[in-house]
């Protein structure tokens, strides 16, 4: 029996990892030893996925080969193709992804193989397929057809192309690529932990990813980015009184979406980049209302609660200005985090032990069993 109970496993070290590291006091984040500030804006998402899954930043040749593997891997299987229209009609985006990734597991050529090599191949396919699943889902529900991926564009550019139906501006591609880089991995966040718990039973890669998608969906985790935008939209529709709206929410005991973090005690280093990209896109769009509202919200929440924005806060307006539909914000998060989740499953399988914590029993004890006819 463990001697200490920590609600929400706060401050409990639940795994060892060589993938990412956070200094919550200093507000620093590292992927495999590289400072996020050195990676953001300088590396593509494909380089980061390779870094997480293979351990080093790729050479040009390795990146070329990895790009070819991703291009081959993005073809969807027969089961996914068959069920996609129904799923798009009946399920909300994150539910749909949970279903479609589960179906992709049945289609996967390595489905019965948990070896390191098979896991790496599955990881590349999952990274390649996730943006396609989101785009195809969106096309199916809107009755359109997603444009074919353009071999000149990477994952970021092709995603914007397929979602908006237009060839994206080069700067928009750079910005979105940076967003994907910033969301790729984040130590023992809830969805990654869920993936590792599943993988630690020696279950397969796709099962672990389905667990992760279901976990990312929640509003206290990845689902917050969509809620941020909905909050901004609602405040704008009611006259744009940000300070008043925030104070009313706090007075009602509501949480302000996009603020606070379990680990950071200062600014989330990803928010620093996202704020700047939001500002740039807002100014270029000719309507910076949502950016200005976000700045004001940040000031009020800090003054009232001492809380900082997390990764979900400015990601919302960045995606909005890039023309991504609001209900696809959390799916976009999953497009990036797929690189981290899959790397964590590889890492878990490579040095496994069942994850099975203890619980503190708070129920009644010593109750007497009573036959069913004598119960009241
Ligand atoms: C990618 C991501 O997952 S980033 C996080 C995305 N989630 C959100 O943005 C949702 C809003 N934020 C939150 O709910 C929390 O800050 C979490 C879930 C991120 C972290 O939760 P925890 O570490 O468990 O902190 P907890 O919820 O206990 O908060 C500590 C205190 O700060 C308050 N607080 C924390 N976040 C907020 C917030 N966003 N708005 C208002 N108050 C907040 C809590 O009410 C609590 O106050 P109390 O001690 O007076 O009860
Ligand atoms: O680490 C966390 O708890 C949440 C988070 O910021 C992430 O998953 O990116």
From TrEMBL:
Keywords, comma-separated and alphabetical: Transferase, Tricarboxylic acid cycle
GO CC terms: cytosol
InterPro entries from the UniProt entry: 2-MeCitrate/Citrate_synth_II, Citrate_synth-like_lrg_a-sub, Citrate_synth-like_sm_a-sub, Citrate_synthase, Citrate_synthase_AS, Citrate_synthase_bac-typ, Citrate_synthase_sf
Pathway per the UniProt entry: Carbohydrate metabolism; tricarboxylic acid cycle
Domain of life (superkingdom): Bacteria
Reactions it catalyzes: oxaloacetate + acetyl-CoA + H2O = citrate + CoA + H(+)
NCBIfam families, per the entry: cit_synth_II (TIGR01800)
The name this protein goes by in its record: Citrate synthase
Molecular function GO labels: citrate synthase activity
Organism name: Thermopolyspora flexuosa
One record GO biological process: tricarboxylic acid cycle
Active-site residues, Swiss-Prot/TrEMBL: 261, 312
PANTHER family, A to Z: CITRATE SYNTHASE, CITRATE SYNTHASE, PEROXISOMAL
Family: Belongs to the citrate synthase family.
Entry-linked SUPFAM superfamilies: Citrate synthase (SSF48256)
């Amino acid at each position: 029996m463990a001697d200490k109970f920590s609600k929400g496993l706060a401050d409990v070290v639940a795994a060892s990892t060589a993938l990412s590291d956070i200094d919550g006091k200093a507000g620093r984040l590292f992927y495999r030893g590289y400072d996020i500030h050195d990676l953001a804006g300088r590396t593509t998402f494909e380089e980061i996925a390779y870094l997480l899954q293979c351990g080093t930043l790729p050479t040009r040749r390795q990146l070329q080969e990895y790009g070819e593997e991703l291009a081959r891997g993005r073809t969807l299987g027969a089961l996914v193709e068959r069920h996609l229209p129904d799923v798009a009609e009946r399920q909300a985006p994150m539910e749909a992804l949970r279903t479609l990734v589960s179906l992709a597991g049945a289609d996967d050529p390595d489905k019965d193989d948990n070896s390191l090599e098979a896991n790496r191949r599955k990881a590349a396919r999952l990274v390649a397929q996730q943006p396609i699943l989101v785009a195809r889902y969106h096309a199916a529900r809107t009755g359109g057809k997603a444009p074919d991926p353009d071999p000149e564009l990477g994952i970021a550019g092709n995603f914007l192309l397929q979602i908006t139906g237009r060839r994206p501006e080069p700067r928009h591609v750079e910005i979105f690529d940076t967003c994907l880089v910033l969301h790729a991995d984040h130590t023992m966040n809830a969805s990654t932990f869920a993936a590792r718990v599943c993988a630690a039973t020696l279950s397969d890669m796709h099962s672990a990813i389905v667990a992760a998608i279901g976990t990312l969906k929640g509003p206290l985790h990845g689902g917050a980015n969509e809620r941020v935008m909905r909050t901004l939209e609602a405040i704008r529709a009611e006259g744009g009184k940000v300070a008043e709206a925030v104070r009313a929410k706090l007075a009602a005991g509501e949480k302000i979406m996009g603020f606070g973090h379990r680990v950071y005690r200062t600014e989330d280093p990803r928010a620093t980049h996202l704020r700047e990209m939001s500002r740039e896109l807002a100014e270029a769009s000719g309507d910076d209302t949502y950016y200005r509202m976000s700045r004001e919200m940040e000031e009020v929440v800090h003054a009232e609660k001492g809380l900082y924005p997390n990764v979900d806060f400015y990601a919302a307006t960045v995606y909005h200005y890039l023309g991504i539909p609001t209900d696809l914000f959390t799916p976009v998060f999953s497009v990036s985090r797929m690189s981290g989740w899959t790397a964590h499953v590889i890492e878990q399988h490579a040095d496994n032990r069942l994850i099975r914590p203890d619980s503190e029993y708070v129920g009644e004890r010593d109750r007497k069993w009573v036959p069913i006819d004598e119960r009241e």
